[in-house]
Amino acid sequence: MLSEQMEQLFYGNGYYKIASNLPEYTFYCRKENQGTTILFVIDYRQGLWVSEDQYAHLKHRITGFMKEKGEEDVHILTLILSADTEKAKKLCISDSFCWMIDVVSKRLIIHENQVPDFYGWKGLLEEYLAVLQQDENRSGDGGMENPGNPPESGGTGGNFGGGKSGRKYRSRRQIAEMSWVTVGLVAVNVIVFLICTFTGDLLYNIGAVSVRDVLEEGAYYQVLSSMFLHWDVNHLFSNMIVLYYIGEIVEKKTGHLSYALIYFLSGIMGNVFSMGYELLTEQYYSSAGASGAVFGVEGALFLLLIIHRGKMEQMTVGRLAFSIVFSLYCGFTSAGVNNAAHIGGVLMGFAVTAVIMMLRPHAGTGKDRGFNES
Q1: What would the 3-class secondary structure string for the chain be?
Q2: Which stretch, 102-116, 204-218, 264-278, has highest mean pLDDT?
Q3: Residue in 62, 67, 57 with CA at minimum distance from that of residue 40
Q4: At 65, phi and psi to the nearest 5?
Q5: What is residue 296's predicted lDDT score, i.e. its pLDDT?
Q6: Catalytic pick from 75, 308, 342, 362?
C-alpha cells in the first residue's frame, strides 16, 4: 500500500514512528533545530469517516502528548491519503497545515489556503510520488494501490532506500543538491585569470573598477566585471579557497538563486563602498577581485549561524567572527588591500540574507520549511 511505501521515505529522512493503536492514524516524528516536526498520516480509506471536530481533537492530543514529553515547539503537518479527494478536502479545508495525496494518481494536492511547503516535504513527496507513478505505468498496473516492492528503509535524509525508485531519487536529489553556483563561480574566476595570463593588461584595463571611469565615462559594467579579475595567483587562490569552503555551506542552506543573489549584490555593494571611499579620500585607483562578494558570503554565513543558535556544519559564530575580524585586520595593516570593499561586502551579505529570511522564513535551513502557527 502507498502508506507502507511512504513509511520508508519517512524513515530515510530521519523520522521515527510513534506507536498508535489505530491503524488508520500514523505519526512520524523528527527533532529539528527549531522544535519538533510531526507528520500525521491519515489513511482515509473507504469506510473511514472523521469529522472536523474529531480531526481537530486528534491534532490537539498530538501536541499535548509531545508537550508532556518536554517538546514545547511542535510543528504538525497532516497528510491525508485518499482516493476520494472531495471527501478528504472537507476534512482539511480549514487547516492550513494539511495536504492531500490522491492514491490513484499518486498526486500531492495543496490548496491555496494551505502552506506551500513544510520542511522541504513538498519537493520530497512530489518527486517520490512521480517515481512511483512512472514505475506503475511501466509495469502496466493501473490499480488504486499496488504494494509492488516498497523501498527498503535506511540511509540518510533524502534517500528512499533500495529499489529503482530509491536509486532514481538519490541520483536526482544528489544532482539538485550540488553547489552548482559555487562551483560555477570558482570555475569562471579561474578561467578568466587564465585568459588574463595570455592577454596581459587588456582585461584589467577594461574590467577593473575605477570610480573615474564609472562616473565620467559611464563604465558601469566595471562594478560587475571587476569581481572576476584577480591581480595574481595568490589573490585568486585566497579568494577561491574561502569561497568554495564557505560558499558551499551557504548555498546549501539558502538555495541556488538566493545564494547567487547574495554573492552578486555583496560584490556590487563592495565596489560601491570602494568608490565612495575613493571619492571621500580623493585617493583614486583601480580595484579588482571577488573579495567583496566573498566577504558577503561570510556575512551571510554569520547570520545563518546566529539563526542556528551558534553552530552549523562544524562552524561556530565565534570561529567565523574571528575569521572575519582577522581578515579585516590583515587588510587594514597591509598595503594595496581594498578594505572598503570588504566592509561593504560583509554588511551587504548580512543584510540580503536577513531580507531573504524575512521574506522566506523557511530559507536558511537547507530545506523549504514551513512553520506551524498553532
Answers
A1: CHHHHHHHHHHHCCCEEECCCCCCEEEEEEEECCEEEEEEEEECCCCCCCCHHHHHHHHHHHHHHHHHCCCCCEEEEEEEEECCHHHHHHHHCCCCCEEEEECCCCEEECCCCCCCCCCCHHHHHHHHHHHHHHHHHHHCCCCCCCCCCCCCCCCCCCCCCCHHHHHHHHHHHHHHHCCHHHHHHHHHHHHHHHHHHHHCCHHHHHHCECHHHHHHHCCCCHHHHHHHCCCCHHHHHHHHHHHHHHHHHHHHHHCHHHHHHHHHHHHHHHHHHHHHHHHHHCCCCCECCCHHHHHHHHHHHHHHHHHCCCEECCEEHHHHHHHHHHHHHHHHCCCCCCHHHHHHHHHHHHHHHHHHHHHCCCCCCCCCCCCCCC
A2: 264-278
A3: 62
A4: -60, -45
A5: 92
A6: 342
Q: Could you tell me the three cell numbers for 353?
A: 540574507
CA-based radius of gyration for the chain = 26
Identify the active-site residue in 291, 308, 327, 362: 291
The answer to whether residue 75 is catalytic is no
Q: Which tens digits make up the pLDDT trace of 47-101?
A: 677 777 888 888 888 888 888 877 778 888 988 888 877 877 777 777 888 898 8
| Cα three-residue angle 143-145-148, rounded to 5 degrees | 100
- Among candidates 353, 352, 324, which has minimal Cα distance to 339? 324
Would you call 20 a catalytic residue per the annotation?
Answer: no
